[in-house]
Structures are given as C-alpha cells and as structure tokens.
Amino acid sequence: YGDGICCSVGVGSYTVSVNGVEKGSGGDFDSSEYANLCTSDPPTTAPPTPGPSAAPSSVPVTPPTPAPVAPLTPAPVAPPSVSCITVNINIVTDDYPDETSWTIADEDGSEVASSSIGDVTPCLESNKVFTFSISDDWGDGICCSHGDGSYKLYRGEAIFIEGGEFGHHAEHTFFLLNQDTVLVDHSTCAGEVKKGAGDKCSESQQCLSNMCESDGKCA
Questions:
Q1: Which of 109, 131, 139, 174 is the most buried (most CB within 10 A)?
Q2: Cα-atom radius of gyration of the chain, to the nearest Å?
Q3: Residue 198, pLDDT above cutoff 50
Q4: Residue range 10-64, pLDDT digits in tens
C-alpha cells in the first residue's frame, strides 16, 4: 500500500536484533525498509601489555661508622686468701708462774703468738715454719722441782710438741704442711729431756731436713 506501518493508520513499529544486539528498528517507511544484519561491533582491542620496567637505581648507602668501643677493664682480682691452721697450745706452769713466758715466731723472726699460762689457740699460716720458745727466769723449767708444769702443742688428739723439764729455755721448730700434717725438727731438742711424742725421729719425713740420723736426731 506504500504507507509503512506507522503512522497513518496506526502506530506500528519493528525491531531487528541479532544475538541480543539490535540491528535495526522503525515503522515509518513507504513500501520497504532494510536493516543491515551483517554489521558487527568493532573488534575489542586488548589493552597493550606494558613492557618491563627497569628497577629504579638505588642510591648507594654508606654504612654507618660504628662508635669506638672502649676496651673492657678487667675486674681487679683479689689475692688468694691465706689459709691458716689452728694450733692448740696448753701451758701449765710450776708453782712460780711469773717466771714462765713463751712465744711463737715465724720464719722471719716475727712474733705471731705469746702468753704465759692457760689454753691458747692461734691460727697460723699453713706451709710455713714456726718456732715455739718457752723460758723460765729461774732456770729450773716448769717441772718438776717446784710443781708438775708442762707444755704441749697439739691438733685434735695428736700432740706434736710437749715437754716441761728444761733449764732456762727450750725451743722447737715445726712446719705446718696442711690440716693433717705437722713436721717437727727434733734437732732443736738437743739436751732436753722430753716426755712423750717426738722424743726422737725414726723416719726422714719427721724432720724438716728430711734426714733422720741413726741416733734419732734430725741432720
């Protein structure tokens, strides 16, 4: 008829789609109208792949200069403590105690202990030689003319020096080796009548000189 489908005798229209995509539409035409169904959407262009980026150049970092460290000052070392050994000294005088006196001196001659009567317990340095000296002003000792006096030096139950009968003076040298060993030099007892332990040496280790002669005296 040549008046399309719109709009003289009604409001007609058409729509042409391919795969959901509209290709043409209309209604107001004469005898015919064409819709191009072959057109396609422009190809989708993939986004360009970025090229590798060069890593930023790092600025060289100068390592920090360490602060100077003061050398460690060693702690002061205390000198080793000197061990001492307790020696028991028992002095019983005769009837005239004012006449009696005694001393202990070290190997340098310095007096380290002294008294008159009673029990005394000085602590003497180990590994040293000491000399015990006892005197009587009247010259008759402390036994046995005017009383039964005596002297003894001992550790525990072991008496290593004892006596009482002497004239003006008696002297004994002894060496404190350790807690268990005391050496007595019997050569210092010449002319003295002693009672009990240490009257004569019988073995070399009983002498400071390490030599015991056949007569029982230390060489």
A1: 174
A2: 62
A3: no
A4: 777 878 777 777 777 776 777 777 777 665 555 556 666 766 666 666 667 777 7
Give the three-state DSSP class for 150: strand
Q: Of 206, 202, 208, give the one whose Cα is nearest residue 131.
A: 208
At 112, list the tokens. Answer: 């380290």
Express each pLDDT in 81-140 by its tens digit: 558 889 999 999 999 998 999 999 998 899 999 876 778 899 999 888 899 999 999 999
Q: What is the chain's length? A: 219
And the tokens for 208?
A: 């400071």
Entry pTM: 0.52
The answer to whether 119 touches 100, Cβ cutoff 8 Å, is: no
């060993």: which residue's tokens?
181
3-class SS string, 7-74: ECCEECCEEEEECCEEEEEECCCCCCCCCCCCCCCCCCCCCCCCCCCCCCCCCCCCCCCCCCCCCCCC
3-state secondary structure at position 183: strand
Return d(Cα 34, Cα 61) in angstroms, integer: 74
Give start and end residues of each alpha helix (H) in 83-182. none
> Does residue 160 contact residue 153 with C-beta atoms inside 8 Å?
yes
